Structures are given as structure tokens and as C-alpha cells.
């Protein structure tokens, strides 16, 4: 899940990742670039891949948690793009409850990092909320390293990561569970491929996708008891609940127990963001009727 202060570049980074992994074709990106230019928002076109509604595009800020999918040679990923504005913290919490790994995006641009990290900034709050929602592995992506005020400065990078590293360890993240890396979400440097030494001589670490691919897969305990914390509910031809499956699997017509009131329920249907089915081993965010 991408999280962090407003304007850190989360949606742009997510959109560029989808483009670089061929989840979005060039024709679609070119279309967004033309539309953004016509709207006077030329630099925002990559974020429009993730921000799909008119209000998000006109204001330049994410309002709801965006979802998208891409694949590498090793895995299939779901991107969750959380809003960075403090008005939409509840949306961020909902997204964090579904995520396995947190990508904390911070802006290296002069002034923006300080605003996000100071009291009242969402960098601190998002990191803390992610930890309380069970995200125990975090990648801190120092974005906008290509900005003229930064110009891939190692000093600026260390300035941003040192303070944040102390804070993250203070809220419970182990040192080995925190990864730092510099990137440019707009140019794509450090996202799919490693940063060219002609651009940044001092960083020789992995790219973002290399880092994600190196994580051990989460053990879903597919044969364990079915457990799914409920993140949302609605009524439409019966009761529909949404959540992330933590263990086990479920089929239609299964009898379940809804806690804490021990209400007996029956599964009439299962739906995921990808496909529907009468019988399915659910391992992702799902809706159950």
C-alpha cells in the first residue's frame, strides 16, 4: 500500500509502476497526457492512472483508496493507493487493514519533507496507523530525488531517512523490517530498474520492484480455520461484508459464525476484485454475501 503525506507523489508513482510493468498500455497513458495538458495539469497525467474520478483529477489529490493490479516475473501484486490528506484518514485505515507491505512515500523536495514529518503531517500518522493495522514490513521510498532542489543529493537523502528511521523504530518497527531507497516516481528511476550510476553514484541498492519481489510470501494458512476481519458492510439482497482473509478458505453454502455475537450465517456468494465463483479459495480482499 502506498501511503504518506499529501503531494508526496503516491499516485504518480503507482501510475508509473503500472505503466512500466505493462499493466497500462502506452496508448492509454498518451491519452491521459493529452487530457491532462488540455486541463492545464500536464505533470499530473501519471497520477490519473490511479485517480479516476473527476474530483480527484481536478483537485490533484486522492480521496478514496485506489486499487490496481500488476505482475512481475515472480508475483502478482495489488496496489492500494491511500489518500494523503488528513481529512481522509479513515480511508487510509481501511486500506491499511488489507495490506501486507507498506510503502511510505516521502518527498525529498525542500519544504515538503518537513511539512509531512512535522507534527500534524501525515508521514508520522500513516506510519503509526500502518503499524497498528498489522503492517510489519515497511519500505520508505524517498521520492522526487530528481527535483531541482534535491538533484539526487546524498546529504538530503540521509537527512530525510535518519530522522524518519529513528521515529519508525520508536513506534515499533524493527530495524530489519525497514528499507530505505531513493526514487523518482515521475521519471521512473528506481521503480522497475536500478538507478543508473550516471544519475545517482552513491546508491547501489535494489529497485522498488526488486525489493518487493524479495519479500517472503505471506503464509495465508489456507487449511486453517476461516478468519476474515470485517472492514465494511452493506445491505443489498442480503447482508454483504468485506474484508481481508487472514486464514483458511471458504465456499458458497458454508456455515460461518459472525463474532462477537456468535450469529450463525450462511455464505450465499463470494466476490473478489478479480473474479466471481461458486467455489474459490479466497486469499485476498473479498466480499461475502
Which key features would you list for this structure?
five-stranded antiparallel β-sheet, alpha+beta, 289 residues, globular, 22% strand, Elongation Factor Tu (Ef-tu), domain 3
Please describe the topology of this protein:
Elements: E1 2-3, H1 10-20, H2 26-38, H3 54-59, E2 66-71, E3 76-81, H4 89-96, E4 102-107, H5 112-117, H6 122-132, E5 138-143, H7 154-170, E6 178-182, H8 208-214, E7 230-235, E8 239-244, E9 250-251, E10 255-258, E11 263-266, E12 270-272, E13 276-277, E14 279-280, E15 285-288
Parallel strand pairs: 1-4, 4-5, 5-6
Antiparallel strand pairs: 2-3, 7-8, 8-15, 9-14, 10-11, 12-13, 12-15
GO molecular function, one term: translation release factor activity
Protein name: Eukaryotic peptide chain release factor GTP-binding subunit
InterPro entries: G_TR_CS, P-loop_NTPase, Sup35, T_Tr_GTP-bd_dom, TRAFAC_GTPase_members, Transl_B-barrel_sf
Quick take:
The protein is of the alpha+beta class and 289 residues long. The chain has helices spanning 10-20, 26-38, 54-59, 89-96, 112-117, 122-132, 154-170, 208-214, and strands at residues 2-3, 66-71, 76-81, 102-107, 138-143, 178-182, 230-235, 239-244, 250-251, 255-258, 263-266, 270-272, 276-277, 279-280, 285-288. It folds into two domains: 2-214, P-loop containing nucleotide triphosphate hydrolases (Rossmann fold, 3-Layer(aba) Sandwich); 230-288, Elongation Factor Tu (Ef-tu), domain 3 (Beta Barrel), CATH 2.40.30.
Amino acid at each position: 500500500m502506498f501511503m504518506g503525506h499529501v503531494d508526496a507523489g503516491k499516485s504518480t508513482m503507482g501510475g508509473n509502476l503500472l505503466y512500466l510493468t505493462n499493466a497500462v498500455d502506452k496508448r492509454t497513458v498518451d491519452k491521459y497526457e493529452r487530457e491532462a495538458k488540455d486541463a492545464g495539469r500536464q505533470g499530473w497525467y501519471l497520477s490519473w492512472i490511479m485517480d479516476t474520478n473527476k474530483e480527484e483529477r481536478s483537485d490533484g489529490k486522492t480521496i478514496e483508496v485506489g486499487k490496481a493490479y500488476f505482475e512481475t516475473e515472480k508475483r502478482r501484486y495489488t496496489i492500494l493507493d491511500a489518500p494523503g490528506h488528513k481529512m481522509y484518514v479513515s480511508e487510509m485505515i481501511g486500506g491499511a487493514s488489507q495490506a501486507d507491505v507498506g510503502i511510505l512515500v516521502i518527498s525529498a523536495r525542500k519544504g515538503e519533507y518537513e511539512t509531512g514529518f512535522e507534527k500534524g503531517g501525515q508521514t508520522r500518522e500513516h506510519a503509526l496507523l500502518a503499524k497498528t493495522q498489522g503492517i510489519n514490513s515497511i519500505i520508505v521510498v524517498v521520492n522526487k530525488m530528481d527535483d531541482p532542489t534535491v538533484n539526487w543529493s546524498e546529504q538530503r537523502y540521509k537527512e530525510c531517512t535518519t530522522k524518519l528511521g529513528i521515529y519508525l523504530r520508536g513506534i515499533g518497527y524493527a530495524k530489519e523490517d525497514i528499507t530505505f531507497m531513493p526514487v523518482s516516481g515521475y521519471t521512473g528511476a528506481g521503480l522497475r530498474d536500478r538507478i543508473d550510476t550516471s544519475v545517482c553514484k552513491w546508491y547501489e541498492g535494489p529497485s522498488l520492484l526488486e525489493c518487493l519481489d524479495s519479500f517472503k510470501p505471506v503464509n495465508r494458512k489456507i487449511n486453517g480455520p476461516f478468519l476474515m476481519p470485517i472492514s465494511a458492510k452493506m445491505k443489498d439482497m442480503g447482508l454483504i461484508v468485506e474484508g481481508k482473509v487472514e486464514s483458511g478458505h471458504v465456499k458458497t453454502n458454508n456455515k460461518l459464525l459472525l463474532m462477537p455475537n456468535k450469529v450463525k450465517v450462511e455464505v450465499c456468494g463470494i466476490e473478489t476484485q478479480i473474479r466471481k465463483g461458486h467455489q474459490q479459495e479466497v486469499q485476498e480482499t473479498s466480499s461475502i454475501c
